[in-house]
Structure formats: structure tokens, C-alpha cells
Specification:
Elements (H helix, E strand, L loop, with lengths): L5 H11 L9 E5 L4 H12 L3 E3 L2 E6 L2 E10 L3 E4 L10 H23 L11 E5 L7 H11 L5 E8 L2 H8 L4 E6 L19 H10 L1
Parallel strand pairs: 1-2, 1-6, 6-7, 7-8
Antiparallel strand pairs: 3-4, 4-5
Helix pairs in contact: 1-2
């Protein structure tokens, strides 16, 4: 299965989540940037409000595309040392955290301004991204929203590796995934168009919702 783009993936995911349409208190949270176009389609189809939860991957020093963990809004930090081929000195980890924390704060200001995150208590949350490779950022997202005491946390993605689904499934209440390929290398390989989502598009979709 290939998705044309993130909007196409969002419509496919919305179909898999159709049972949640009309659920009182339903809230769709997109993980910027790539998860927001997907989440926008889901929120529109389910007639639910859309918001963002800013999460940043912690890339392995010298191999940035490989996640050793993630941070999320609210001071949440998740570090999975089992994924590291060798121990990373604490000073190097902290350097990565500081850099990503600065970018997280920038995005918070840009996407949210002075607007606080919508209340999470007793709500059903759909955490949406464009795909899961390691699951590190989504685990951090689940940890971040769990503190808000929601009724249920549902992780929803168009595509994911089996390992990521297992990892995220251990912390979320439910995981919905349209497509779990047997041979998974990267999220982008399952999209015809996987161009980078811009800050401008994220802001436009949030304003539209």
C-alpha cells in the first residue's frame, strides 16, 4: 500500500477511526509537523476539534535520523537506551536535549501563541502522526498527555513498523494503524509525496479547524 500524500493517508486513517465519530469529548491531537495534515483530515471526518502536541525526536549524536528518545510539551523526556549501539555520554545527551528543547519552544510559540492546550481530563484523545518508525516520539506524546488524566488515549497512524506498534501499544490504551508492512525501512517509503510539511501549513490547518 502507498499513500499519495499525507492528506490521502489522513482520509484512509479516518475511515479506520469511523467508530469514534460522535464520541463526546473527542479531541484529535496532531504531532507537528507531518502529523498535522493527517490529523486535520481525521478531525474533519470525525467532526472533532484539532489541536497540536509538540514533540521532538532526540537524534543519536552523529546519526541524527536515528531516534534515541524524544521530548514533549510539559517537560516530558523519554530515552530508550536499549536502541543505542553504544552508550552516549550524558553531556552529549544533554546537548541534544537542549537543542531540541529550543526548537520545541519555538514551535510552541508559533503554533499556539498564548493559547493553552485544550483540557484533556476525561476526554478521548486521538494522537495522530504520519507514521511510526521507532515509536519514540509517540511514546513521549503518550507520556505527556497521560498527565492530563484523559479517559482514553488512542494512537492513530497510517503506517508503522511492527516494532513501533508493539512499543507504543505498551503505553497507549489503543493503537489504530491502517498498514503494517512486513519489511519496513522508513515512513516515507510508503508515500508517493512525502515532502516536508512547513510551519505555514501547520498554522493554516490549525486556523482552518
Amino acid at each position: 500500500m502507498d499513500f499519495k500524500n499525507r492528506s490521502d493517508a489522513g482520509r484512509a486513517l479516518a475511515g479506520a477511526l469511523a467508530a469514534w465519530r460522535g464520541q463526546p469529548g473527542l479531541l484529535v491531537l496532531g504531532l507537528p509537523r507531518g502529523g498535522v495534515p493527517v490529523a486535520s483530515e481525521v478531525a474533519s471526518a470525525l467532526n472533532a476539534p484539532l489541536d497540536v502536541l509538540v514533540v521532538r525526536k532526540l537524534g543519536h549524536p552523529g546519526q541524527e535520523e536515528f531516534a534515541m528518545g524524544a521530548i514533549a510539551s510539559g517537560g516530558v523526556r523519554y530515552l530508550d537506551e536499549s536502541t543505542l549501539a553504544w552508550p552516549v555520554p550524558a553531556a552529549e545527551v544533554e546537548a541534544v536535549v537542549r537543542r531540541e528543547q529550543a526548537e520545541l519552544a519555538r514551535r510552541e510559540r508559533l503554533y499556539r501563541g498564548e493559547r493553552p492546550l485544550l483540557a484533556l481530563e476525561d476526554r478521548v484523545l486521538l494522537l495522530v502522526d504520519d507514521g511510526l518508525a521507532t515509536g519514540a516520539t509517540m511514546r513521549a506524546a503518550v507520556m505527556a498527555v497521560r498527565a492530563g488524566r484523559p479517559q482514553r488515549i488512542v494512537v492513530a497512524v497510517p503506517v508503522a513498523s511492527r516494532e513501533a506498534l508493539q512499543s507504543v501499544g505498551s503505553v497507549a490504551d489503543e493503537v489504530v494503524c491502517v498498514f503494517t508492512p512486513e519489511h519496513f525501512r522508513a515512513v516515507g517509503q510508503w508515500y508517493e509525496d512525502f515532502g516536508q510539511t512547513s510551519d505555514e501549513e501547520v498554522c493554516r490547518l490549525l486556523a482552518k479547524s
